[in-house]
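Re: your question from the hallway

Yes, I did run it. Sequences:
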Amino acid sequence: MDLTGRSLFIANRGEIAVRINRAARSLGMEVVQAHSEADADMLAVKLADRAVEIGPPAATKSYLDIARVVEAARSAGADAVHPGYGFLAENAAFAAAVEAAGMIFVGPSAETIARMGDKVAAREAAIAAGVPTAPGSDGRIEGIDEARAVVEKIGYPVMIKAAAGGGGRGIRVVENDADLARLIPQAQTEAAAAFGDGGLYVERMVRDARHVEVQILGDGSRAVHLFERECSLQRRRQKVWEEAPAACLSAEARARVCDASVRLAEAVGYRGAGTLEFLYEPARDAFYFMEMNTRIQVEHPVTEMVTGVDLVAEMIRVAFGAPLELQQAEIALNGHAIEVRVNAEDPSKNFMPFPGITGAIETPEGVRFDTMLYEGYAIPPFYDSLLGKLIVHGADRDEALSRLREALAGMHIGGLKTTLPLFAALAEDPEVLAGEVNTAWLEAWLQRNTIEAA
Amino acid sequence: MAKTIQSPLPGTFYRRPAPDQPEFVADGGSVAAGDTIGLIEVMKTFHEVTADQAGSNIRFAVENEAPVTAGAVLAEMD
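Structure:
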């Protein structure tokens, strides 16, 4: 499909807007860039053919204002709207409004976004497609007898969760029957007091959990996977370091989770780039589906580095109705890639945000740095702290780690405090080098270690 | 001379702990040293703004949810 001269409206900012711009240029498209009042001099505006202001600095009044963004894109004569990640990327009403205004939404249909955005509906779709989910009670349990019946099937340890809870609130870990008998009534009372709903459910406790996610591309009928990433190094549930492939998986486990993910993508008629997120429990060699993200993800570059596929360009092509050209058999894993997220935060001061003015930037040869930075750029305080992503590739994980250490030694960003010193320390850590980490590992490591300011 | 409370950080100023809760300090109210008078949101994190001295008849110089620069005067008081 020839997209030359077609116009793409980028409804996002920062490094991902720059990345989308690059993909659109590779397809010969015209680029219209949205920006808030605070973002008039961002890099993506400078790289665009045209820029349109969409409101005040606060994202709720600009990047998150559906009516305003859609009207800006329509007035600009855009053929399609790319939402990036965050903001309106997984908002079904936005996708519907873009299409209702006669433009193409670069992503799945509004129906798919709504369905996969609902935890219960997504879990049901996963189970129907044979995708493994964490075993537990099918819905709510009413007391100790039902809880015992569930535990008999799934085994200890289990987590008791409040049905109305969220974000880790109202969760108890139970190791044995005596604790179960004691904690179920207590959890019911507390859930009723805290959430106005005493409903509970029981789920298997995943020990030593690793975050593994599968990259999918679909055209609405056929889907392929582009293997998986591992993102177990997290701080406050935010990924900071991602790799492809996941070194903790055997070839058999990799094939199992990737094939299941393709089944789910095809079952829901998935169009665009998407990611299925799983917890992986090494001791049981088991995957548990968590959620599907119906957009491009921050860490997509590691997948691009090991497969050679331009995911952003592909998602634009299929959005315009082009059939997926990639065949599963021709997508191969080549080497190992690592990405680290360079944030404007001071790791020596508990990751305090640092929205300063960018000084001179030195990037080593031979590495990929997806960034919104340029010398002299004043980073606005109104949005997230991601400045860019440093990505390295090697023939295997050891070589990628060695390239990462070299890259970090040669990388300098003047004027700002960034998370680069954190990665320099992590890239020397024996447990990171051995791949002996899980999703709780980095928080514990940060308790034990102090990062010196760069 | 009026005492001032300045923003320690650039970002967005909030006068309430959450949209459905009352203001930290009402217009014309009094504060003790160390009292929280608002929040600054910077890069999606929230930081408390505290009064470094006691005062009365507080007058806010910026509106709720307004963007502010580091050092901007948020409020004056007697």
